[in-house]
Design brief:
Strands 7-9-10-11-8-12 form a six-stranded parallel β-sheet, with helices on both faces. The protein has a three-stranded mixed β-sheet with strand order 1-2-3. It is 43% helix and 16% strand. The two termini are 35 Å apart. With 409 residues, it is an alpha/beta fold. The protein contains 18 helices and twelve strands. α7 crosses α8. The longest helix has 15 residues. The protein has three domains: 134 residues, Arc Repressor Mutant, subunit A (Orthogonal Bundle); 181 residues, P-loop containing nucleotide triphosphate hydrolases (Rossmann fold, 3-Layer(aba) Sandwich), CATH 3.40.50; 60 residues, no CATH class.
């Protein structure tokens, strides 16, 4: 998932070990550097902060990493920080020694030659950053390695409320390109991702965020049934608070409710000059209060307030619950992306069987419409999910389970 590939292939846990090895001298300080926070680690090893706890948990269980709560330079709040244990330091050094013996192709002047990574350590003061530098190309140019500055970690905010469980992502390149272009533009717009259950709406939204997370503040909120609009407003207030904009948060703490116009007034001021993406996932669970809040966000977009809004919802969401009108689309304030099924080859990848006979694959695509969620449930042999979320009959489910395992002779 990262933006670079290592010449020496490393797992995410191995990257964490090598990265944290460089922070040993900070263990006994009263305040800790940003680099040992979840966000700092995420930005260094190129994963989302929401995935850091899962990655680090394995290392904590193996007693290679310890978790602490402490103050970070420039932040008034205590946050989780991570350091290697004594065993972790030993493990990281063993890994480092193994990597130092690996060979890479190096260009020096007009000649190419193989060198051990140990011979390149003088070209960068950080071993971890050296690995990233030499991984940017097949042949390493010695004259340029030392010139590559250590990336300045930008402290963009990412706040996640119930991020859904997401797995592999296949296809959707056209949709990704469209959404990424909108998110990187200066024009405020909303994006409505519409499709049936299992179409991959949440996965598409999440994949797009991966592409812009380095230059945007991100709020992800997954709606549950019977939630109040106050929950969304509170989440947005906390989101702004994390960015150092405290007005709305302080107002909420002193009031039991807030007028929607006052909410909009403060929000429009607070997010000025900020790159913000707000995602409301599972919008089909919205009630009238939620519709009012989300519609108010679209109102800000119409007024030119710098905001990007992504909403995922099922195609059968009642029209009276929609938060925008066809006029908003016509006038360019937003865009609809309607998801259908994936192509045959992508479906085979999801099913983890590229040898399914053509006739059997035709039946699978006819019954599943090529919907990634349905195909994923099949691959996991999860008949319960298919029964609860699709209109497939028990007989059709059994047929699909048989067909997915067939192979061309």
């Amino acid at each position: 998932m990262g933006s670079f590939e290592y010449h020496v292939k490393l797992t995410y846990t191995e990257r964490v070990l090598l990265y944290l090895l460089e922070f040993e001298r900070y263990k006994e300080r009263h305040t800790y550097p940003y680099g040992v926070t979840q966000r700092g680690i995420a930005e260094a090893i190129d994963i989302l902060p929401a995935h850091v706890p899962r990655t680090v948990k394995k290392l904590i269980v193996e007693k290679l990493v310890e978790e602490r709560f402490g103050r970070v330079e420039g932040s008034p709040r205590k946050v989780r920080v991570y350091f290697l244990t004594e065993t972790g330091v030993q493990k990281a050094n063993e890994l480092k020694q193994r990597i130092l013996c690996e060979k890479v192709m190096v260009k020096h002047g007009e000649w190419n030659t193989e060198k051990e990574i140990s011979e390149l350590t003088n070209f960068h003061k950080s071993f971890f950053m050296l690995l990233k530098a030499i991984s940017a190309c097949e042949t390493i140019e010695l004259d340029k390695i030392g010139q590559q500055p250590e990336p300045k970690l930008k402290r963009y905010v990412e706040l996640w409320y119930t991020l859904p469980e997401l797995s592999e992502f296949f296809g959707r390149e056209e949709e990704l390109s469209i959404i990424e272009s909108i998110l990187n533009s200066e024009k405020p717009r909303f994006i409505s991702i519409i499709g049936p259950w299992g179409a991959g709406k949440s996965a598409l939204a999440y994949k797009c965020l991966e592409r812009v997370k380095r230059n945007s503040n991100i709020l992800w909120y997954t709606l549950k049934k019977n939630e109040s609009g106050w929950n969304i407003i509170t989440a947005i207030a906390r989101f702004l608070g994390e960015m150092g904009k405290k007005t709305l948060e302080e107002l909420i703490e002193s009031a039991k409710e807030i007028d929607i116009d006052e909410f909009l007034r403060i929000l429009s001021i607070e997010i000025e000059h900020m790159r913000c993406v707000i995602v409301i996932d599972e919008y089909q669970n919205a009630n009238e209060e939620i519709v009012d809040v989300v519609s108010s966000l679209v109102k800000l977009i119409r007024e030119g307030i710098k905001l990007k809004l992504i909403i995922t919802m099922r195609a059968d969401t009642p029209s009276y619950m929609w938060y925008y009108s066809s006029k908003d689309i016509e006038e360019g304030y937003g865009i609809e992306i309607r998801l259908q099924g994936v192509e045959w080859e992508e479906a085979k990848q999801i099913l983890k069987n590229t040898l399914i006979p053509e006739e059997n694959m035709r039946q699978i695509m006819m019954l599943t419409k090529g919907l990634p969620g349905v195909l994923k449930a099949m691959a996991q042999n999860n008949e319960r999910i298919l029964r609860e979320n699709t209109r497939l009959t028990p007989e059709e489910i059994r047929l699909l389970m048989f067909l997915k395992d067939t192979k061309t002779a």
